[in-house]
Amino acid sequence: MPNLIVSPKEKPDAKGNVLEITPESANWSYVGFQVFKLQAGECLRNETGDQEVCLVLISGKADISTVKETWNGIGLRMDIFEKTPPYSVYIPNDDYYEITALTNLELAVCKAPGQGNHKARLIPPSEVGVEVRGYGNIERLVHNILPENEAADSLLVVEVFTPDGHWSSYPPHKHDRDALPEESLLEETYYYHMKPEQGFAVQRVYTDDGDLDETMIVRDGQAVLVPQGYHPVAAPPGYEVYYLNVMAGPMRYWRFHNDPAHAWIMSKPIDKE
After folding, report:
1. For 78-87, how does the pLDDT look when each residue is reduced to its tens digit (9 = 90+)?
2. Strand partners, 177
3. 204-229: b (≥16 Cβ within 10 Å) or e
């Protein structure tokens, strides 16, 4: 039985890291992911090495600098469930980032192989694509932070708010075949928060042949690995569910395939009552 859930550390390490996923720990090739929690006044500095990075300010404010750029006082969302788009920063490989927390800060570091094709840049909330996806109890709010039509070498980054009692990443879809233009091969991580935080989400990860078929209870602050297969999410009544997705693969396209058994749901008439 694979262990697809990654739990946070009991307390931050010396650099403020509370969760880490590497290609080695996930047993895959492209996606890396970290979460840091810094107190006001604390600093963090890391080299990007051969990875491009997207820093997502999940909550809090900070000053951020790279080799050539500096952004002071960025950050707007003090609570994730304000549901305003976040500030983010794209940084290429062979660079560094230095962060000074101006308030308590929760920071996601999304990583994938870089080829040095793009400059460091700020992604303000005004440049985040906002959409409501689905209908009825599969409706959810999506923030497209780093979609494929925005410059990057490998990374795709999006966050989703699923209302209580709703389903998300639904109908079940997958992107585990390098078969463009029909489907792209993308590894994916889900990083979760719940409101109230004692809540949980239900996530299933399964393949057509049944070799992988896991149904998981996911808690606040945990992450889920999706190496292959379909991966729907459910938010139980009374609990809103947030997740941040990071995707990367050999080609930077998001082309997915719905589970044929459930694809009919997208053609269901919307109840107008």
Report:
1. 999 999 999 9
2. none
3. bbbeeeeebebebebbbbbbbbbbbb
Backbone phi, then psi, for 239, in 5-degree steps? -130, 120
Alpha-carbon gap, residue 42 to 37, rounded angstroms:
10
pTM of the model: 0.95
Phi, psi of 253 (to 5 degrees): -135, 140
pLDDT in tens, 185-239: 999 999 999 999 999 999 999 999 999 999 999 999 999 999 999 999 999 999 9
CA gap 124, 142 in Å, rounded = 16
**CA dihedral sign, ordered 46, 48, 53, 54:** positive
Cα separation, 19 vs 224, whole angstroms: 12
